[in-house]
Amino acid sequence: MLLLISDANILIDIESGGLITFMFSLEVQFAVPDILFNDELKDLHAHLLELGLQLRQFDDEQVQRVV
Amino acid sequence: MIGQRLYRARKATGLSLRDLGAQVGLTHAAIKKYEDEQATPSSTTLLKLANALNVRAEYFFRQATVVIDRIEYRKRSTLPKKRLTAIEHEVVDQIERRIELENLFPSPTVTPFAPVRGLPERIRDLAQIEEAAEAVRNAWMLGFDPILDLVDVLETHGIRVFEIDAHADLKFDGLAAFVNQMPIIVVGSNWPGDRQRFTLAHELGHLMLGDRLADGIKEEVACNRFAGAFLIPRQSVTQELGAHRRYIEPKELALLKEEFGLSMAGILYRARDLEIVSSAWCESQMKLFRFKGWHVTEPGKPYPPEKAHVFEQLIFHALGEEYIGESKAAELMKMSLTTFQTIRSLESGNAAANQ
Q: CA A31, A36, A37: angle at the middle one, nearest 5?
């Protein structure tokens, strides 16, 4: 199963609760939008990528929909 | 929307379509299409663009609550066009965030700017500027005392003050402008406090005197006189220095600077303008200042810098009253949520806003 997380706070809270390695040991793939990662997670939480966090991009149509 | 903001951010960095294209691995035609909104970039491309243009990706998505086409300068700047465009971009960015934040309050946070009563209709000689400065002080109930927080005084009277880091540009002191009919003053954050205060008061002079000066009076000279007179009005100068002096010790100037936040040289010029000392003596002192390098850096402890603190205060006010949430606050302060939370918790060493 693929879970897309759209709020960085979820990852940050799970990490400060010490549950992040457990979360990534689940039979689930976790992904965040690349923009969210860049603005919110890159500086202090880049190691999430090593734990298995995936990045997903929006193509032009999806970006257009956000706008 | 993305296109227009992309265009603005590109202009601010001074990059051509081709330069930007090369940096992100696209043709100039592709960038042009994005700017003209004939195409929309993918998120990955947006990130590359944000990186090359030194903005956060969020910048491209921001809903402009106010449309700011251009800044009306009170005077033509001597800065090169490219630098001016970059400064303009940063100012507009700050104003946008400020106005967006203000609009989230249920009632207005800023008293509208109102013309000051009692200003001379027409200023025919420089000495009249003393009256003008006193009229402003009077209308704003400042008495003759030193102004401790000049930014606060200006903000209280509807003049929004913004700071920009102009380290790259030693020529930039500040500017006064109208944005959507609101007066604003921008000051460089990198200068010592006394220089910033002189700039702020000088730019206030532009707003107050602009259309009242008789032909033949140079606006810049008039605004310098206004700045001095506003920071230390003639009554205070005479009270502190006496009506006539033959000699003023530099240490005495330094002490007055500490009290009024006007540079030693500025106080010297005040004494000359008010005929407390002779022009010849003032000139000889300025030679001494140049000889000692004091015209670049004055001796002693620098006067503490002014701080444009209103924006950050409004953020926490809005947060406290739940007009905005943490994410919005972080976005308006152009920082990640984590950084914002550190600042909010008062646990970071340096709570400087990334304005």
A: 65
Distance, in angstroms, between B337 CA and closest chain A CA?
A: 6
Give the orientation angle of helix B264-273 with respect to helix B250-260, to 10 degrees: 100
Q: Give the C-alpha separation, B245 to B276, whole Å.
A: 6
Taking only the tens place, the pLDDT of each residue in B71-105 is 666 555 567 777 777 777 888 888 888 988 988 88
By the CB < 8 Å criterion, does A44 face chain B? yes
CA distances from B280 to B214, B272, B274, B290, B311 (A): 28, 9, 14, 15, 46
pTM listed for this prediction: 0.78
Q: Hey, where are the domains in chain A?
A: 2-66
Structure token pair of residue B210: 């602009």
Start-end of H helices in B232-304: 234-241, 250-260, 264-273, 279-292
Which letter does DSSP use for residue B302 in this model?
A: P
Residue matched to tokens 């956060």: B56
In B, minimum Cα distance to A39 occurs at: B336
**Model ipTM over 0.90:** no
